[in-house]
Amino acid sequence: MMKRLVTCLFFLLHMVALSASGQSITGFSVADSTIYLKKNFVFRRDYTLPYRILEPLEKDTKVKYPLIVVLHGAGEKGTDNERQLLTGGAVFANLDNRIRFQSYVIFPQCPKPDNWTTFGFLKNPGEEIQMGKYDKQASAPLRATLALIDRLIADGNIDKNRVYIVGLSMGGFGALEALATRPSLFAAAVPICGGGDSTACDKYARKVPVWLFHSQDDPIIPVGLSHAIANRLTTLKAVPQFTEYERAGRFSWREAFADSRLLPWLFDQNRKQATDGRKSDAPDIPAPLTLRPLE
Question: Which of the residues in the chain have pLDDT under 50?
């Protein structure tokens, strides 16, 4: 128990350092924008999860759309329901992407002092990484996010076979724990400079495609954490994708979101096809719109 507490303490200290390291990139502000609708999800009587949602450009009530869930990093914690869009918000709001990849996108916000994950690690200079385990129950913000996904699917607008989760830094840890918690929920996952309990990989190996991103010189989250996940998945006969940068430092997500292969790969994943090899009986993803920006 004491080792678990020490491990988690060091993880929290890493997260505090991360917040101070300049994670929040203010290149995209949606504080006064309505492109991402501002919502709140009542998870339970004493817990409400703030989130923002981007809807398809032209919703068709007869079509079920893919859903992307984006988990932010430690620097965007809070309850203002705005900061979580600072990193990644511009990618999915880009008009060309909205035309090509019609979908719903949600950015839930983790309140302070909570975390997306229950995983912890200990890394001292010159020592091997000591990794903890997931708690029996996921954190309240992650459980609330999973419940929100269930609610959106139940509303009837989401293709349950095309639910994708993306996370950066603290959110990368959360994305991997979400897979371990609800492996049958997701069609693909993109953990960016994250990590997790590699002993839980057997819950989603060969079931959910994973594309990891990390930089060798990340000063806060050791690249070895992503190596551990990739190696364990490979041992379990899965084929994870792993893009490792040499000098992206703390900002692997900049490179990942700029990778022109990422969104096509993500939207190509289909849980129905991945699990039984048969064509999904859900409506196909709508064809790209012909809408173009005005000159």
Answer: 1-26, 31-32, 276-295
Rounded to an integer, what distance in angstroms lies between the CA atom of residue 169 and that of residue 175? Answer: 10
Task: Decide if 18 contacts 74 (C-beta within 8 A).
Answer: yes
Query: Distances from the Cα of 172 to the Cαs of 22, 45, 126, 158, 210, in angstroms?
Result: 17, 28, 25, 23, 11
Residue in 103, 107, 115, 106 with CA at minimum distance from that of residue 143: 115
104-108 and 121-122 beta bridge pairing: unpaired
**Partner residues linked to 40 by β-bridges:** 50
Cβ atoms of residues 188 and 210 within 8 Å = yes
| The pLDDT value given to residue 28 | 60
Question: With 0-12 CB in 10 A as exposed, 13-18 as middle and 19+ as buried, what is 109?
Answer: buried
Supply φ then ψ for residue 202, to 5 degrees. Answer: -65, -15
Say which residue the tokens 């990989």 belong to: 201
What pLDDT was estimated at residue 33? 62
What separation in angstroms does the CA of 44 have from each of 40, 145, 277?
Answer: 12, 12, 38
Q: Which residues of 129-140 are buried (b: 16+ CB within 10 A; e: fewer)?
A: eebbebeeebbb
**Using alpha carbons only, how large is the chain's radius of gyration in Å?**
18
46, amino acid identity: D
pLDDT in tens, 207-263: 999 999 999 999 999 999 999 999 999 999 999 999 999 999 999 999 999 999 999
20 burial via Cβ count (<10 Å: 0-12, 13-18, 19+): exposed
Rounded CA gap, 147 and 201, in Å?
Answer: 22
Residue 129: per-residue pLDDT: 83
Contacts of 234 (CB under 8 A, 6+ apart): 240
